[in-house]
Amino acid sequence: MNAKTFNGLLKQVARLTLHQRELLRKRLDTLDGGEQKVLAVIESPRSEHPRSCPHCHGTELDRHGQVSGLQRYRCQTCHRTFNALTGTTLARLRKKDKWLGFSAALVASQPLRPAAAALQVHRNTTLRWRHRFLNSVKADRPTTLQGITEADETYFLESRKGCRKLERPARRRGGKAGKPGLSNEQVCVLVARERTGQTLDWVMGRGQMSKAELASALQSVLAKDALLVSDGNPTYRGFAQDAHLAHEAVNLSAGVRVNGAIHVQNVNAYHGRLKHWIQRFHGVATGYLDNYLGWFRALDNHHAASAEAVLAMTLGKFPHLTVT
Ligand SMILES: [Zn+2]
C-alpha cells in the first residue's frame, strides 16, 4: 500500500466504533502471527514476585533450555523443571497462537459461535477455553471494601444449560420462571460496591439470602470502619449488628431513594449493566454464573481493557501486580 492510501486508512481508523476497533485489533493480531505476542505476555515478569519454582517456591533457578518457544527453568532446590505456564490454568492447553485472539473475543464479549468461526477452532474448544480463562480472570478481586459500601442482591433464573440430567422438564433457554415472585428457581447474587468503584460479587444460592450467607460473604472483606448501606431488607441490619459494623438502610418502600450519601444507586446501576450485558448469552448455566460475574467485573472496571491484559490475568498476572 502506498503512503497516501495508508494515511487515508489511518484517518478512517479514528472514525471506527469501539466494536469495530476490537474487530480490527483482532484481525491485526491474527495477521501478526499471534504466537510471538502470546509468548511475550507469558514470559513477562510479575513485578512483586520474583520468578519462583511452582513446586517448592524456591527462587534459585537455572535456565534449562527451551520448549515450544518458552524458557524452561530448573529449580536448584527441588531439581524439578518448569516454565512460565506451569501451574496456571493454561498449562498444557494447545493452539497458543490463538490465545490472544480468544482473549480479544472475551474483551468484545463475543458469543462462542462467532468467536470459534473467527479463530477457526471448534465451538467446544472456545467453550472449554472460556471457562479456563475466566477461572483465573474471576480471581482478580479486591481483598477489602472500605468507606461507604453499598450492598444489594439481584436474582438470576436458575439454569441447567449444558447439564445432561434434568430434574424438571427443560425450559427454553433464557425462559421465564414457572412460579411468580421469588422462588427457589431464582439464584441470588450479592454485589457490594465501594464508592471508589471497587466491586465484589458472590453467588449466594437459591431463593432469599440468609444472614449466615450474607456474613460469609461480607464479614471478611468489609473494613472495620466501613459504612454498609443497603435497602430495607432486615437481613443487612441483623448482619451489621452481629458484626458490629456501621449500617444505614434506605427506606425504598417509603419511596425514599436517596438520603444524602445514603443510597444504593451505584450498586443498582451495576446490577443494571450486568443484567443488560448478560442477556446476550441467552441464559447462563448457574454452575458457571461466578465465571460470568468475574468476566463482567473485569470489563466494568477496565482491567480487561485489552487482549493482552486478559491473557495476563489468565496467567495470574493481575493489573496491580503487573509491570506495564
Ligand atoms: Zn523447586
List the strand order in the largest sheet: 6-5-4-7-8
The computed structural class is: alpha+beta
Name the poorly predicted regions. Answer: none
Strand content: 15-25%
Major sheet: size, sense and barrel closure? 5 strands, mixed
Reading off the top of the CATH hierarchy, the class of the domain at 148-161 and 173-291 is best stated as Alpha Beta
CATH architecture descriptor name of the domain at 148-161 and 173-291: 2-Layer Sandwich
If you consult CATH, what is the topology of the domain at 148-161 and 173-291? Nucleotidyltransferase, domain 5
- Helical content stands at 25-40%
Quick take:
With 324 residues, the chain is α+β, with helices and mostly antiparallel strands. It has helices at residues 3-13, 18-31, 34-43, 99-107, 112-119, 123-137, 211-218, 234-243, 265-278, 289-300, 307-314, and strands at residues 61-67, 70-75, 81-82, 148-157, 186-194, 199-206, 227-230, 246-249, 258-259, 262-263.
